[in-house]
Amino acid sequence: MSKKYGSFEVVKNISFSVKKGTIFGLLGPNGAGKSTTIKILTCQSPPTSGVAYIGGFNAAVDAAEIKKRIGVVFESQNLYEELSVFENLNFFRQLYGAPAEKITEVLEVVGVKGNQKDKIKTLSKGMKQKIMIARALINDPDILFLDEPGSGLDPHSAREIRQMILGLKGRGKTILITTHNMEEADFLCDCLAIIHKGSIIAMDAPGNLKKKYGEDVLRIKTVTGDIYESPLNTKSSSDIFKKLSDDNQIFLVHSKEATIEDVFIRLTGERLTDES
Ligand SMILES: Nc1ncnc2c1ncn2[C@@H]1O[C@H](COP(=O)(O)OP(=O)(O)OP(=O)(O)O)[C@@H](O)[C@H]1O
Asked: Does the keyword Nucleotide-binding apply (predicted)?
């Protein structure tokens, strides 16, 4: 599918499918087209061309059917700040006609206990993100869309959210996340699509992407503090090792595994930093 705003093609002929019960990631820098893709898939904005099927329903036609089966966590935290945790969740529970027990159940799933009376405005960003995820679970969706779930969170909260996302997969949910965080993408995703300027430029399991496009490196630190790096298991790395070893220069040797960042740099010639 493709999406244009005026003459600006934001999503360019992308095509992918997500296996039931897995986590699929769209990884790319700001402006790559990730949120636009989520908007198409969650029936908020139709594609200019092409078609998206969610659980067998056409996103541009069957919005009512799809909305019963999906939960969405938007990038911006759009909870009612002046209302309590309970009031926020109860509003959505009523919208979906879910039973009253659902609120305690979804709060348990996201690991929140005893905060039901707290106003949203008094909560930390990490706690708000948990409430956002709890809200997306109110209708017991089969499919979850999480737009930048770890963005702007402190490392501890980001780790908690990642574990929770894995837990949701364990409960059988199919999850699509967008992220510009490579560690998050690597840790969570069964399949990862790297999106750059609206196009998917690579798609595979993170481990396969690293094998295919990354390079493990031999890293040697000398007694004088110099660092030598060379692709692992090559003649050049064994030559460097031998020379430094003969000269008694080696202080530390280790191998460095390829990362998703290496893959991104290799494919685009650009860095994908957390600040991007
Ligand atoms: N309604 C719109 N009208 C015009 N241009 C838009 C609109 N929405 C998004 N864009 C542009 O489309 C491009 C892709 O935006 P999109 O939000 O999908 O990117 P993204 O990868 O999700 O990045 P971010 O994390 O910053 O949201 C950007 O250049 C953005 O400015």
From this structure: yes
